[in-house]
Write a structure and sequence with these properties.
By secondary structure, the chain is mostly helical. It is built from eight helices and no strands. It has two domains: 31 residues; 110 residues, no CATH class. Helix 4 runs parallel beside helix 6 and helix 6 packs antiparallel against helix 7.
Length: 156
């Protein structure tokens, strides 16, 4: 089955009644966990971005506490998993400030991680790439915000 384009879907949704759209959304939420998470964000958390950021930070903290530190391989794998989850939450928000807040928080957690990330070259590479990514994204923001975020990034 070939999926329709966003334009075709938008056109079709405009022709449907609100009740039909509600049924489609509920049906969509049953199929994938990410669909349900996105709907949860849009319905309950999008109105209060600060609370959303704090809840994601708490989840990052919990996941960093559970990292398997037995071997460098497991450390790298766990950190990649946490980073992927963080980026998924960033995609839900689509807010540049939220993206930078969460990435900088992730970098801070990574920097203070024990055993040191500088002993594991692959984890250190992840760390350095994230810093570069944050610097590029900071350049796209308003000048006042750029100054604040660059100051935070200088610590790394």
């Amino acid at each position: 089955m070939k999926s329709a384009t966003v334009r075709e879907i938008k056109k079709e949704l405009q022709e449907r009644s609100p009740k039909e759209i509600l049924e489609l959304c509920l049906r969509l939420s049953r199929f994938k966990k990410e669909n349900k998470e996105l709907l949860t964000y849009l319905l309950f958390e999008a109105s209060d971005e600060a609370t959303y950021i704090e809840s994601v930070k708490e989840e990052i903290d919990e996941k960093f506490e559970k990292v398997n530190r037995k071997s460098p391989y497991f450390v790298k794998k766990s950190i990649r998993t946490i980073l992927n989850h963080t980026k998924k939450y960033i995609r839900y928000s689509q807010n540049k400030e939220t993206e930078l807040e969460l990435l900088i928080y992730f970098i801070q957690k990574l920097k203070s991680f024990q055993p040191s990330i500088h002993r594991n070259r692959k984890v250190e590479t992840i760390y350095l790439r994230l810093i570069q990514e944050c610097k590029k994204k900071t350049a796209l923001l308003h000048e006042d915000l750029q100054y604040d975020y660059y100051r935070e990034l200088e610590e790394f």
